[in-house]
Amino acid sequence: MSTVVVVGAGVAGLAAALSAAAAGADVTVVAKEPLPAGSDSVDAAQLAEVLDEFAGRGEEILAAGEHAGDPALVKRVCRSAGRLAAQFGSAARTPRAGAAPRDPDALEEWLSGRLRAALADRLTMPTASGAVRTLPGLRATEVLLDAEGRVRGLAALNTRTLETVEFDADAVVLADGGGAAMYAPSASAEAVCDGLALGLSAGAEAIGMEFVDFDPAGLVTDVIARDGSPVTELLTLPGSRLVDVLGECVAEGGRGASRAELARAVHARILAGRGFDDGSVRLEPGGAARDLAELRPAACARLVQAGFDPARDTALPVRPRARALLGGLRTDARGATGVPGLYAAGDSAGGIHGAAREGADGPAAAAASGRIAGRHAAAEHATAPTVGGPRPTGGFRFAGRGPDSAEAILRELRTGMYLKAGPVRDAEGLTQMLGHLGVLEQRLRHVGVTPGPGAAAQIAAYLDVRHLLLASRAIVEAALRREESRGAHVRSDFPEARREFVGYGVRLEQGVLAWRVCARRAVPVGAG
User: Fold this and answer.
1) Mean per-residue pLDDT for 103-116?
2) pLDDT tens, 280-316?
3) Extents of the domains making up the chain
4) Phi, psi of 419 (to 5 degrees)
5) Mean pLDDT computed over 134-144
6) Could you give the CA distance from residue 187 to residue 40 in angstroms, rounded to a whole number?
7) Cα–Cα–Cα angle for 33, 39, 44, nearest 5°?
8) How far apart, in Å, are the Cα atoms of 432 and each of 488, 495, 511?
């Protein structure tokens, strides 16, 4: 029996844990957050339908990603999604009322939540039998390697007590999500690229780091938890438009423009000084505003949660928000990173979505890739009985004693990345951001932690910034190398896409990012 540690309890992590357990492995799930409650109210038939649709869209996924995705990987993930669809379909009972939402943002949220609940429900039996252990409240801090460079376990930090522990393992699956929290606003401030940073530090390669997907219309609101809430779907309404501070139209809705095109137009207008005082443009839903609750119920709900009255507030402040980092650890079709015993899945991995991602492709791909990685990680057979864990190793060692704070560094990082490496980029801004990253990296060395009740939060912020700085440097350096515009990567100084896609891979070597060309593919005539 092999021992597998899965990092993350999202869709990819839960799928990996289930798959590894089904293959006979002893599985431990390490996650910062509690696992979701399982629910037998999830309509398996609906999940099967969405996954089956994803399974048949391989060519569309490659085209949507402007042929920056790995064709072999996309084919394998789509096939895995089809098998997941069959599993959910066989478990389906009488379909419940209510169809899956068709709006991309609402569908992504719907599918992610229901997949996670359904997978958690399926973990109940292997957890009860002891095949799977779930340990929330632990943050992975290091992938442990033996003298030959093979995975031997995982180090983690108790986020409450700050005690450190180690797990012995034959394989580790990094599936904690990628995230774009180095930008503000972003879709998730909690997704801080832990898996990416851990993988790079262990010797894995990352790809596609320049590709960051932006929603063109995220709400600007004083309700902090709702700042950046996406309302892009309102631009599909006839008569909707975006206007700048001079009242001039930035873009008209209902025209079928891509997310990248809309985000580029809005961001450029704001950078040109044509935004409102709050750094936004205004989204006018048009004549359909009075019927939003019926026409766009998900967006209407977000407006209410953000403090707006959909019937009266007909000029909504919006700006682009970072939606997802599309790059991640490079894997083969088995989910293996090239570091023996180390696997990646979901948003911790790159290569599936290429230069852009559509609709619910994120959670569907996460479930399918998690299934693949977990099954193959379980095949990493132990050569000797493993002890398992967790094994206490003492308290978290923190050397910083300076006056700076991680929170202050994070605020500067998010502002700088949004302005210099956001929806529209150029060599001057990216070069300036590289210099700023160097300053922030130096400042991080002088961050101090005050002992007491607030120490855990301070150390969490320090780890967040450490990982986000590494990911940000990879994003900026990759964006400088890609002298073209492709999908979510837009260079104002190189506005055209090339006829050949060149992929760049990066490793961390002695603390420095080392780059290479890892892929070359001709772009089909008429694509992009």
Assistant:
1) 83
2) 999 998 877 778 888 888 889 999 999 999 888 989 9
3) 3-211+324-395, 213-321, 408-495
4) -80, -40
5) 97
6) 28
7) 120
8) 21, 20, 21
Q: What share of the chain is helix, strand, coil (3-state, %, to 5)?
A: 40, 20, 40
Query: Catalytic: 93?
Result: no
User: Is 408-495 CATH 3.40.50.300?
Assistant: no
Q: Which of 241, 259, 296, 473 is catalytic?
A: 259
Report residue 237 as tokens: 């309404």
Q: Regarding the domain with residue range 3-211+324-395, which homologous superfamily does it belong to in the CATH classification?
A: FAD/NAD(P)-binding domain (3.50.50.60)
Task: Indicate the pLDDT class of residue 146, thresholds 50, 70 and 90.
Answer: very high
Q: Which CATH number fits domain 213-321: 3.40.630.30, 3.90.190.20, 3.90.700.10, 2.60.120.20?
A: 3.90.700.10
* φ, ψ dihedrals at 281, nearest 5°: -110, 175
pLDDT at 271 over 50: yes
Cis peptide before 453 (omega within 30 of 0): no
Does an H or E element contain 466, and which?
A: helix 455-481
DSSP 103-149: SHHHHHHHHHHHHHHHHHHHTHHHHHHTSEEEEESEEEEEEEE-TTS
Q: Which two tokens stand for residue 119?
A: 């997978």
CB-side exposure of 180: number of CA atoms within 13 Å? 28
Neighbouring C-alpha atoms within 13 Å toward the C-beta of 392: 5
Query: 372-426: per-residue pLDDT in tens?
Result: 999 999 998 766 556 567 899 988 887 667 788 999 999 999 999 999 999 999 9
Note whether 307 and 224 are within 8 A (CB).
no
Q: Which is nearest to 426 in space by CA: 473, 482, 378?
A: 482
pTM of the model: 0.94
With cut-offs at 50, 70 and 90, classify the pLDDT of residue 97.
Answer: very low
